[in-house]
Every structure is written in structure tokens, then in C-alpha cells.
Amino acid sequence: MFGYYMDSTWLYLILVVPAFIISLIAQAKVKTTYSKMAKVRNTSGYTGAQAAAAVLRHYGIMDVRIEETSGKLSDHFDPRSKVIRLSREVFYGNSIAAVGIACHEAGHAAQHAQGYVPIKVRNAIIPVCNIGSYLGIPLAFAGYFLGFEPLILVGLGLYSLIAVFQLVTLPVEFNASARAIRVIDENGLLRSDEEISGAKKVLAAAAMTYVAALAVTLANLLRFAILFLGRGRRRN
User: Is 195 a catalytic residue?
Assistant: First the structure.
């Protein structure tokens, strides 16, 4: 048992901690980039709500509402209610950050309206991924302590679905940002290259948090695989 805890600690330090540090850096980058661009007023005068509405019009979407929501950086698109919810700073704000974030969320609405395949796949696997997040590691633990490798494999397989979900999320997020920037440029929602560059920086920083989250999950998956399968086979 002591060997198990020693191995677990070292694997955590070697694999998970570096990925977790990258994740913290990514989150800090989002906050600093957003804070900087939230202070710069865009010259077109568009608020986030107006910019999101412009994206919806661009794609001919008529059945999606735009509402204010509480919190900071709490902006999201709810496909079930067909509502884009924007935080107060984004909804009423006319900063470069507000336009970029609002258009990104409207980009998600466009994905749903056009049947974008990756978002369909992501939505389809959510129920199974939720099961994997709750049962994956407990099943792997049980298989390890019972000396039953098939149960370990089932548990790790379920846990790996989290990584699959996060991997499928990447093209969804990058595509929503690409749609946002394209509409911003084509419709003059931001009028200069510097403003568009600022919006790109905000969205790129946000996208990196998804990459970092995937890195943390993969590091944990590798740690558990080495810990459970490696020690289990040596023990046998």
C-alpha cells in the first residue's frame, strides 16, 4: 500500500502538476487579455448584444434571443432554450472584448442552426461522458484492489471519454471563433486591423483554456493507466 501511494504521488508530480500549471497560466491569460481589451472602446460603437444580433442576422437566424445574465465571463449559448446569455459587461459593453465574446457565442448559435457536425457529436456523447466522470476512476480503483484487470480497463475507458469530449470541443470552439471573426470583418463590427487583432487575442486566450483542460485530463489518464495497470501486472 505504501508503494502505491509513493507511485501515485510521483506520477502526480511528474504528469499532472505541469499540466495543471499550464491550465492556471491559460486561465490567467484569459483574464488579463480580457481585462485589457475590455478597456478599449471599439470605434464602431457596437455593444456586445448588438454585435451578437448582427451575427445572427448574417446567418439568417431568427429564433434565438439575446439576454443579459449575471456573473463575469459567464457568457454562453443555450441551445435548448435558444438563448445567447451575455454577462452585463459584454451585453451592454462596447469594448473590443465585448464584441469578440458576443460574436463567439453567436457563432455557437450558427453552428446549431447549420448542423455543424462536431457540435452534434459533442452533444451526443455528453450523457456517456457524465457517466464516465462519475464512475470511471472508482471502477478502475475497484478493479485494481480486486486484482481484476478487465474492470480497470472499463473504468479507464469510461474516464477516457472525458478526454474525447474535450477533444471534440476544440474544433467547436475554434470554429465558433473563426465564424465570429469572419462576420466581424465582413460586417465592419470592428473597423481596424488592430481592433480585430484584439478580438482574436481574447478568443485565442479563451480557446487555450480548453486545450489546457484536455492536457490535464490526458495527464491524469496516463497517471491512472500507469498506476493501475503497471502495478497490477507487476503484482500478479
Answer: no
Task: Report the interhelical angle of 48-58 vs 149-187 (nearest 10°).
Answer: 90
pLDDT in tens, 155-177: 999 999 999 999 999 999 999 99
- Three-state DSSP class for 1? coil
Catalytic one of 67, 89, 105, 173: 105
Distances (CA, A) of 71 to 74, 88, 219: 6, 8, 31
Say which residue the cell 483574464 belongs to.
31
Is the pTM here over 0.85, yes or no?
A: yes
Beta strands in the chain (DSSP E): 65-69, 76-78, 83-87
Question: For the segment 21-41, what is each residue's pLDDT rounded down to a tens digit?
Answer: 999 999 999 999 999 999 999
Rounded distance, CA 16 to CA 37, Å?
Answer: 32
